[in-house]
Amino acid sequence: MKKIIVKDLVNPVRIENYLHKRFPDFSRALIFKLLRLKKIKVNKVRCKIATTIQNDDVIQIYHDLIFSSKQNKNGKKAMPFLQTKGQLNVVYEDQNIVVIDKPVNLICQPGNDESVQTLQNLFLKYLYSKNELHWNDTFTPSICHRLDQNTAGLIIAAKNALALQEMYELLRNRMLTKLYECLIYGLIEPKAKTLKAYLTKRSDLNLVSISNKKTLDSKEIITKYQVIQHFVKAKMSLLLVELTTGRTHQIRAHFNFLGHPLVGETKYSQAQFHQANAQFKFQALHAKTIIFPHLDREQFKQLHYLSNMKFESRMIPWFQKLPFLK
């Protein structure tokens, strides 16, 4: 967490303008994203876009945008990510991005508790070990999107501000194709279908609800699935899923709504599956594939060379190793 005490303002200003001026290497898209995700507080209150700030306001940023303000004995900024344990599983790397295979049971970014053991910190430690990150850098490289702690698979991280900005544009406009593997209860039919429904988010409870009817607060979701294999004896189905819309908990909540919850999923599954789920530590969900679209050279000056590239996770999901599925 980075804490800033506002000083030297002549007049009150909007927080996004203040942060962009103070940290010019951070794009407005990144600042807006942090505000939408409630990662910025003013005077201990989560703030929104267009919040006005003034002198003596205290801003708190819960994100690894900036190194810790603490200093070591040499007068250099402390780098808490060096305490992170483990190795980064790199699928692809170039001068702008790193495609990472995230394991299960690892959170992507520090929360309010400033956890050290995160994928973001592991990424920073990796770059530091290659001499691509220094204590006095003004920009901190960052992962571009997230997976749940108990979901494994592909994550893209950006090494520089321009790459991060273009990645945010790709994600915001849903230009990437993301494919997931999951194991669900039941022998779902038909074997391929495009599903539509409406999702309502309950941010206060970190939950979503699904309905076939649109409401004022709901957003449309589109989930495509294809059956890879039916396991008749186990009464389970292995699916390949594409999210046309990438809403919070979409796969977990949508298949539960259909009566086919993910194996090991406890947040949304009905009581009748709780006993069966007790034997599993994690939900059976894996981010398997990311495909880039054709990228216009003028629009994506930094990342255009990634046009039509496809990345596959090298991990075998834990749920494909279950003995009763053989």
From TrEMBL:
The keyword Isomerase applies. It comes from the Bacteria. It catalyses: a uridine in RNA = a pseudouridine in RNA. The keyword RNA-binding applies. Residues 13-72 form the RNA-binding S4 domain. The active site is at D148. It holds the Pfam family PseudoU_synth_2. GO terms for biological process: enzyme-directed rRNA pseudouridine synthesis. Its EC number is 5.4.99.-. One of its GO terms (molecular function) is rRNA pseudouridine synthase activity. Responsible for synthesis of pseudouridine from uracil. Belongs to the pseudouridine synthase RluA family. This is Pseudouridine synthase.
